Amino acid sequence: MSSAQCPNLSTAGAVPAATHKAGILPLVALAVGFVMAMLDVTVVNVGLSNIAASLDAPLSTLVWIVDGYTLTFAAMLMVGGALADRFGGRRLYLLGLFLFVLASALCGMAPNGEFLIAARLLQGLGAAFFMPSSLSLLTHVYEDDRVRARMLGVWSATVGAAAAVGPLAGGVLIHWMGWRSVFLINVPVGIVGLWMARRLIPAVPRHARALNLYSHVAGVLMLAGLSFVLIQGPVYGWTSPRILAGLAVTLLAALALVRHELRGIAPLLPRALFSTPQFAAANGIGFLINFGVYGNLFYLALFLQQGRGVDALHTGLQLVPIMVVIFFGNLLSGRMSAHWGPRVPLLLGLSVGAIFTALAMGFHPQTPYWMLALVCAAANLGVSTAIPAMTAVVMQVAGRAHANSAAAALNANRQIGALVGVAVMGAVLHSVDGWGLRNPLAFGMMALAYALALWLVWRFVGVVEKQMTARQA
Questions:
Q1: How many distinct helices (H) and strands (E) make up the chain?
Q2: What are 106-124's pLDDT values in tens digits?
Q3: Could you say which of 153, 181, 295, 459 is the most buried, measured as most Cβ atoms within 10 Å of its Cβ?
Q4: CA 239, CA 249: separation in Å to the nearest integer?
């Protein structure tokens, strides 16, 4: 749907920036969409077993239900940023939130797995449109640096809390109203968010920006092909013609993307970033961290429900202590970085994450819950300590000139990491029989991802800090 077809989402109710008085309500208006998008990443995992029973959905369909959202979100995230510059952040935020609410209603009414997957793809598209605009609009609403810093702190805490309580909220909703409620609850909340945004968020100036359609299309084809190969490989067979064709599409699209980015007139990322190995390393760290975190959430939710026989409500309850530590790890990271720089929380956090995730390889369905919760919470606490430090490294490498492009690339790479992590965990569940074999393989792969990220930190992040020190001197 274009803005011309939906004028009330672009111009009606616009608040002139010059007369707008910022309070807490604009923050609430912008946080509505962001919180819903965060919740939909976690609450769906809690309802997977219920969805499978209700829609008679096989495991591959469950993986698509989780990864379909991440696929379009990751593939269209940078497109969303470019469109926001070209057509205005407020307009694209409203359009994206409208699509997200519409898709949520369709998810809640899905008659079968295929319909639910299509609706989840639309949800991801809506999120890719409104999420890049939300922080940009926030900076325009709160022009005073001190006020903006305080509001960003509230924003981060709100988003972190939403991610932490997502499994519990999903468990409660599913227990009392069924799995469809986790999607349908977005409709009234989203409508309120749309109304508040139209009333409270001012329009911001547009910026002329070329749309690199060739690179965007190549990126979409690459991610779609990769998702197909990883998710359908166990179903069709890894050497089947369809999987080999999907692999060929993935490789050709990746080659076309790299070639165009290196030689094209308007690349998605500034070429100065390509020439910096530290930038590639930091993005690799982001990919590997999300591979482990979101792969773990998907796998652990199914392990609790299918391996240990826990219902949705108790799955949500049991995931709360495992997820809530992420919020505290993010806070701890800032204090550690202020004292010792980003290298220390990265090294320490990833070491803790790798060690405790490796300990989880010994889990079996009879493992006491307190032991499972302690090990997984310790791993998440360590990894969440590394996440803000990783973002700080990317911003250091990019500098002010390329900060926006670097942030967009990091977010896209992290989403791709989540996409691949969930798909790989789905392949493990599909291809390996028995939790006695699945757990060592799945948690071993997550631990390996954290160990590889740790090596990247050891190899490259010290170089970044030396360069920054020399630059300041």
A1: 18, 0
A2: 999 999 999 999 999 999 9
A3: 295
A4: 15
